[in-house]
Amino acid sequence: MKLLFASCLFTTLTPLAAQARDGAAPNAVLHWNRVVAEALAAAKIDPLTESRVLAIVQLAVHGALAAVDAGSGTGPETAASAAAVAAAASEAASGLLPGLSMLDEELERSLQAIAAGEPRSRGIEAGRAAAAASLAARAGDGSDRKADVPAGTRPGEYQPTPPDLTPAWMAHWGSVTPFSLRSSDQFRSPPPPAVDSALGKRDVEQVCCIGGRSSSLRDEEHSLIARFWYESSPQSWNRIACTVAQSRQLDARESARLLALVNVAMADGYIASFEAKYHYAYWRPTTAIRAAGAPEWLSFLDTPPVPDYPSAHAVLGAAAATVLARFFANDFVAFETTSGQPFPGIERRFWSFSQAAQENAASRVLAGLHFPVAVSAGCRLGEDIGTWVFEHALAPVEGQRAAAAAHAPRR
Fold first, then answer.
1. Cβ–Cβ < 8 Å for 358, 224
2. Is 266 strand, coil or helix?
3. What contacts 93, CB < 8 A, 6 or more positions away?
4. How far is residue 366's CA from residue 299's CA, in Å, rounded to a whole number?
5. How big is the CA angle at 165 (ends 192 and 308), to the nearest 5 degrees?
């Protein structure tokens, strides 16, 4: 990755869960981000749909707070803004995930904690309107299309991977309308290497040596890294963003803009990466390694049923890390985070956003899921997307520019 920043200020972050223990005022934006993320995890929603839902929800929250601020002339820490966040998040999420009672139950709890009166009523109205607008903006975006992709037969062409040989999945996602990009192929990665090239052969050998279930080169730390990052990217990077926002004591308005940018970047990251995946339809390491003479080889972790190139996991990590570093005007921010399903409870510490993104990308080689060239291309694509989203989506108002300057490192 090419993340370059002027400052090297290191800041230790505290987990979001510590806010009540530390006596800090609760941040409704961060709270509802975790509520929706947990609802998605409980419903076992696929990562691509997760990214779309979270982007729509966070845009609704951002819009609701903007409407409340514009209507009242007051800051975000008000009864109206708390009600607006709760109504926007719950209404938008429920519109996309009907039947999840936990969203309705949490909305009722949140509103009961806000004093009844005109500010709460105004906030609820603003939140519902913002949710309706966010949902309407994405109606007919192509996310409900279906596409069948025939399995390849020649070297280099994608084929379903063992052990379950699941047919190619979500082939239509590259045609979904982007949230911010001009088109899904705006930053399309260059072609992958020819299978008989020196680079193509080298990548096959590297993954064969370190990414197999019985690899002798992958040590305990490598395996831990592979498991830690195996979680859905929207889940892991939203958790990281909330941890950073809580540590920096962002208010609701700042948190809303940060999470909207991060999630728009990740949603567009999936759209762009799947456009490229099915444009090139490049085979996975398991297929290539078996064709090269290891017919029983299996990846350390199960391979998703989509083409290899570029790595969407690397794209989302680089996109999220780029937005975070640009938002705080500083890449070198230390934080701790804990993994979720399917390997929950693994704790890791990072010294910068880019370090986390690079380890996230490398984990796919350690897990035997991607060639090194696929993760390198994914990092470049993700950084391009993150930069574009930060520079073109949700331009901050003057108050947010001042807040961003306050969070930037001192020189």
1. no
2. helix
3. 36, 39, 53, 57, 100, 103
4. 9
5. 15
* Segment holding 122, helix H or strand E: helix 118-138
The residues, any chain, with a CB within 8 Å of residue 264's CB and separated by 6 or more, are: 55, 58, 59, 179, 180, 389, 393, 394
For residue 265, what are its two tokens?
């970047």
Domain extent listing, the chain: 16-142+173-407
List, for residues 43-65, the tens digit of each pLDDT value.
999 999 999 999 999 999 999 99
When pLDDT is averaged across residues 304-312 and rounded to a whole number, the result is 97
Amino acid at 312: A
Task: Tell me the CATH number of domain 16-142+173-407, given options 1.10.3210.10, 1.10.287.110, 3.65.10.10, 1.10.606.20.
Answer: 1.10.606.20
User: How does pLDDT run across 169-191, given as a tens digit for each residue?
Assistant: 999 999 999 999 999 999 999 99
Helix (H, G, I), strand (E, B) or coil at 12: coil
- Stated as kind and residue range, the H or E segment containing 131 is helix 118-138
Distance between CA atoms of residues 188 and 185, nearest Å? 5
Q: Model pTM?
A: 0.90
CA distances in angstroms from 329 to 253, 362, 408, listed in the order given: 18, 25, 5
Per cent of the chain over pLDDT 70 is 88
| DSSP class per residue in 153-206 | -STTB----TTTTPPP--TTGGGSPPSSSSSTTTTPPPPPPPTTSHHHHHHHHH
Average pLDDT, the chain: 89
Residue 235 in tokens:
């889940």
Token reading at 357: 């993104």
Say how far apart CA 123 and CA 241 lie, in whole Å: 25
Burial class (CB in 10 A: 0-12, 13-18, 19+), 212: buried
Q: Which amino acid is at 314?
A: A
Query: What whole-number distance in Å separates Cα of residue 264 and Cα of residue 381?
Result: 15
Residue pLDDT, tens place only, 143-159: 999 888 888 999 999 99
Helix axes 79-96, 101-112, angle to 10 degrees: 170
> Is 405 exposed, middle or buried (CB count within 10 Å of its CB: 0-12, 13-18, 19+)?
exposed
